[in-house]
Amino acid sequence: MKISQQILSALILAVLLTGCGTAEEIAHPSAAIPPSDLSTSDSEAIQESELTLDSASDSASEMLYDYEIKTSADGSQYAVIKGFRDDNAACSTSDWNAVFPKELGGVAVTAFAPYAFQNIPLGNYSYGKLRIAPDIVSIGAHCFENCGLTDVIFEKQELPETALDAKLTIHERAFAGNFGLWGIYFSNREVLLKNEVFADCAETGYICYMSYQNKTAKIADELKAYAAQNQWHAVEIPSYYSSKPIVYYPDTPLTLKPEIGNFFQGEDGSDDSMFYPFAYHDDALYYGFPEWYIPCGEFCAMMEWDYEIDASSCLISKNGNYAAENLRYLAGRNLAWAEGADGAGIGESICVTARCGYSYEHDLYPKGTVCFLTGDIEPDIYDGYMRYTQICVVNGYAKNQKTWAENGRVKRLLMYVENQPYAYLELEDTIAPQYFTLPPDTMKAADGVEIHFQFVIEDVYAGTTYEDTCLTGLVIDFMGRRSH
């Protein structure tokens, strides 16, 4: 019922307030850049009686927003939105994004005033999504503070290569206090971020920017530094399609240490109900990433999904109990892979080939665009690239504690990505699942493009009875899923 009410509200607002604009509208010609200190420029307050309206939709926008027309030093004019005229008003929605008019009073809107929408629940009308038009060059202090936002997209500027884009200035605490705000996309905008712009937002957030195949985005270094300073992540959104994986290798292989997790089972307490794995228990059957198991979730939306596992050797068994395919997450703990070489298996390897694709989504999400998604378990960035983010390893033969202790376990793996060394995985000697977090945005593959991983055994923990070294699971997670 809650969703139906939101949809109904959005449709009503969209009909009544068409003048607020949509993401697909053609941008107005770039207006003159307002001075950095808006308070010192000449201004002319707009009175309702003075408006010249071209349509009913323009009239709706004029009546909805409080704004000013200001004059730049060169004599050109621009509009500054100061807020809603009515405290109970709400902006229009388009494709579930909150949007604002690109023109008021016959001139382009290029700025939002300080405190314009502070404490107004914009997220109630747009699922927390906000789009900012490319003409905007200034967002005042505290403007969108505590508005219930989850993500903000600054639309791409369509400028000739010879033109200079207008730097966007976002003032102090402009988006602060949006506790669920985790995704920001500046596309090709140059931006100046003042103090605490995203203070008191999500603990883990992503600041995204467009990248080009033949040049580095001008804002990349600045946004990377800002993200690092605030314990967020900076993410490139490629404006091009690459037929090969894009991998950023460290100068020397990283050394990664795990976080220890637990096995999970169905909500009803049985291992047969694998589709709702939210109950964690030492004796449960499944491991890996819970969102992989949710019915009709992130994975059944994909048109193509291949996850192939092979190994350099396997212990011979009549029933295939030790095949490399047993490392797939659906096998659970009852099966495992065991190397088949003489000795403890030093130098033996596991190869994983992953390929994910949607096919039909290409027209909906052109190159260089991004959509922030709130998944069933955690948020996700979709731009046509799959970003590989985490590895889950279940060490040894984890069928039960006795079997696990009797067989050898892996102590260290050397991980290769596209045949180049990337990181050492230092495994602990525990039966519980181990999770290794990969550096954000360092390896990605476009929709439908294969990426290859190899894991070579470098050291082992000896078993009490058998010399063979075993693994129960090896699963690689990624960001870029789309759920229904």
State the CATH topology of the largest domain.
Leucine-rich repeat, LRR (right-handed beta-alpha superhelix)
Q: Report how far apart the termini are.
A: 18 Å
What radius of gyration results from the CA coordinates?
27 Å
- Oligomer description: single chain
Low-confidence segments: 1-57
Q: Helical proportion?
A: under 10%
Overall description:
With 484 residues, this protein is mostly beta strands. It folds into 2 domains: 239 residues, Ribonuclease Inhibitor (Leucine-rich repeat, LRR (right-handed beta-alpha superhelix)); 233 residues, Sandwich (Jelly Rolls), CATH 2.60.120. It contains 4 helices and 32 strands. Strand 24 and strand 25 form a beta hairpin. It is elongated. The two termini are 18 Å apart.
What's the gist of this structure?
The chain is mainly beta. The protein has helices spanning 2-16, 56-64, 220-229, 401-406, and strands at residues 42-45, 65-71, 77-84, 92-94, 97-99, 103-104, 107-112, 129-132, 138-139, 151-154, 168-170, 183-185, 191-193, 206-211, 233-238, 246-247, 254-256, 259-260, 264-265, 279-280, 304-311, 337-338, 349-357, 371-374, 379-382, 385-395, 409-417, 420-426, 434-437, 443-446, 451-461, 470-479.
